Amino acid sequence: MSDQNELKVTIMDLTQEDVLQILKIMDESDYERLHLEVGEFKLVVNKRSASGISEGEQDLSVPVRIDIPKAVESSVQIRPPAEKADIREDCGVANEEIALERCIPIRSPMLGTFYRSPKPGDPSFVEANQVVDEETTVCIIEVMKLFSTIHAGVRGRIARICADDGQLVEYNQVLFLVEPQTDEEES
Amino acid sequence: MTAISRVLVANRGEIAVRIIKACRKLGIETVLAMSEADRDTLGARIADRAVCIGSAPSRNSYLMVNTLLMAALGTGADAVHPGYGFLAEQPELGESCARNGLTFIGPSPDSIRRMGDKLVARETAIDLDIPLIPGSALITDLAQGWLAAEKIGFPILLKAAAGGGGKGMKAIYKPEEMETVFGEASAEARAAFGDDRLYMERFIPNARHIEVQILGDCYGHCVHFFERDCSLQRRYQKVIEEAPSTAITNEMRVQMCNAAVLIAQSIGYKTAGTVEFVLDQDEKRFYFLEMNTRIQVEHPVTEMITGVDLVAEQIRMAAGERLQFYQNDIQETGHAIECRINAENPEADFRPSPGRIEKWAVPKGNDIRVDTHCFEGYLVPPYYDSLLAKLIVIGETRQKAISKMTYALSDFHVSGIDTNIEFLSAIMNHPDFRSGQTNTRWLETVVCQQGDGNP
Questions:
Q1: A113 to chain B: nearest residue by CA?
Q2: Best of B34, B64, B66, B69 to mutate (most A CBs within 10 Å, chain A)
Q3: ipTM of this predicted structure
Q4: What's the confidence (pLDDT) of residue A183?
Q5: Are strands B6-9 and A174-180 parallel, antiparallel or unpaired?
């Protein structure tokens, strides 16, 4: 499936530098997804959009040429197919869960390190599918050894966890997507 | 000191772009710390990475030391460049960097503190026998104020010890004003700087602002890159800067430049800095004013006449490299002028004019340089200063530079927001400016007609 937001490139020979350059082009462009095939390796990159929610599918396909410098010796550091699932951890994935469009994002109120549990080794504050309300602690953000407890601020079900434990998150970055509960669902 | 491989750029606008370009040139990666309002900026596009540090107001973003440190540490940066303004002259940022193993691209916190306290800076100059504006030491009460005022003579400038850069200054023209202004000055200083210490200086009516660019390494070497003349100011904000100054003799130039190096060396100053002097055109004497412990807005005019890249050198010095210049290696050629292009309406008391730039066309030419972060379609935010671009030209002589600047201004087209371009052109055409008959009050009193009309 190709659309306006997907850039498809197939070439035979690629260096690590080429990959970095492609990613840079991706980053600076308006494309949201990159699908790259090099021999038997496949790389799929999804750009995280500001709201963490898919903008929806478009029907137009726009073929694009990229001039990629010819390969030199070094091998490409692309994960083999078996680990492909790990690559797609990004929260900006536009996929089959239509429910994501109804979700309310919980955004980080500051730049800092995102922690899912009170201390290393402790269970996470929240897990996927967990029901939360406004007061539920969902995570901790740490800035230079100062820890801030973040509360959900909304009522609903954790539809998606959008940041990794120990990851640097930016101001306003989407941390969780919460599917709001309707009156019918609550009982 | 270790080599720098990734810099966190803790600033915005044109200086962020300038720093990123210098880093690129040195093969150093860049991470831009940006506020919410600065997501779609030129800096964010050209940096290797950009991270959002907070909401638009500076106090929630660019002034947050811990957040900036976190942004640096979290992105693998090994150095922080503070630019100018914001935290550039707050010792806390340099101290936090040092505590966390990051290289601060600027002088030591000690240098910043010593020159940031204007009273301590004056003491340093006194110890080195560098001429000082006739003035006082710390004044703690009105009685002391009267004693000092008698010695100095009216009119007087009452200044905050924690001020600088044109902030925290009040003029007292007549003895009758003393008590009121003194009270106001204390209160305002306490509110603005958390420090109500005051001192006095003689008010010099026919003055020029001359400053010397210096650069030091961490081995005690220091050189100067000659002077800049920044006398055209409005409310203590520089509008036009030139290098060299045509108002000083060669002898004075040598004395000022040597004094600047002396001051810098005496405090073990490293990276780029500027020592400011006041030239009393009536007495034909110069006095030390203050030292700025950062890269300055107007650094391009020095770069144009000496061929140096001051920002790259600043980064090199911070990385522990040795100064690659001997003083004799540094030559100046030609005359450079810089005009600050601001988003403001001179006809409405210079009211700032944020908004979306519809057309943005800058002049081009061999001897024309434009430092900017703006582009067509850019939304100039209302939260920060109004500087859009710096337009710099160089000519063989001052007259040729003025002609070139006149042409360049006429070819600088901006629509969608107000700018001061026409105002700058009017200055270029003014006979006083062309003949060099100006001083620090000229722009306000003659051109803006806000003073009493006496130059």
A1: B74
A2: B66
A3: 0.87
A4: 58
A5: unpaired
